[in-house]
């Protein structure tokens, strides 16, 4: 009987430790969600229209991103007198890049499309990650640029993995890393988020995004939330 009690106590202690770890993960995720505007507000996101500039190799290009939550996203930028467009939907996508001498819209590469489709979710992957079929693990803390950040490993239902880094001073995600196979080589894609701003409706967004090793920087100067969007802008035009 005494041994049984000791075994039961051990099991309770292990269970408490596991529960404490899960609670810590939930606490970090919940504080992040609250910092971004709150779960109810994020789930009410329907559309986002962002305008700004895209900087790469020392050149700046006007940029506009139209996103209908979970439905479609249109990215357009002007370069060398041309308007270049990429459209992503849950099932397909297309690009039209006159700056690359394209004469007509072409279908997106399926491998590239899978990565881009993750950004269709305006609420963010950490919101309701379990219901979305993902799993998350709080790895601990990692010091980046002199700051201790919480590191969350997110494994998606398709087995792809990203690491999210949360700043405990404001509970924003300031960095995301994802490994991607490019031409047979495993490359770590790094996204740094900064210059966080709050819209008049209380939504928080990163106005500055840096992507490495591509050396691409995006700065948003105007963001509109839940404004009507004509879905025709996502339709692939017929070849001329």
Summary, kept brief:
The chain has 240 residues and is an alpha+beta fold. Helices cover 20% and strands 46% of the residues. It has helices at residues 2-35, 39-43, 110-117, and strands at 47-56, 59-68, 72-79, 82-88, 93-96, 106-107, 135-144, 147-155, 161-167, 172-182, 185-198, 204-212, 216-225.
Give average pLDDT, whole number.
89
Distance between the termini: 84 Å
SSE series: HHEEEEEEHEEEEEEE
Looking at the structure, what is the overall shape?
globular
The major beta sheet can be summarized as: 13 strands, antiparallel
Which stretches of 5+ consecutive residues score pLDDT under 50?
Answer: 1-23
**Assembly context of the chains:** single chain
Strand order within the widest sheet? 6-5-4-3-2-1-13-12-11-10-9-8-7
Give the number of helices: 3
Rg for CA atoms? 21 Å
The total count of strands amounts to 13
Residue fraction in strands:
over 45%
Helix content: 10-25%
Name the structural class.
alpha+beta
Can you offer a commentary on this structure?
The termini are far apart. The protein has 240 residues and is α+β, with helices and mostly antiparallel strands. The protein has a 13-stranded antiparallel sheet with strand order 6-5-4-3-2-1-13-12-11-10-9-8-7, covered by helices on one side. It contains three helices and 13 strands. The protein has helices at residues 2-35, 39-43, 110-117, and strands at 47-56, 59-68, 72-79, 82-88, 93-96, 106-107, 135-144, 147-155, 161-167, 172-182, 185-198, 204-212, 216-225.
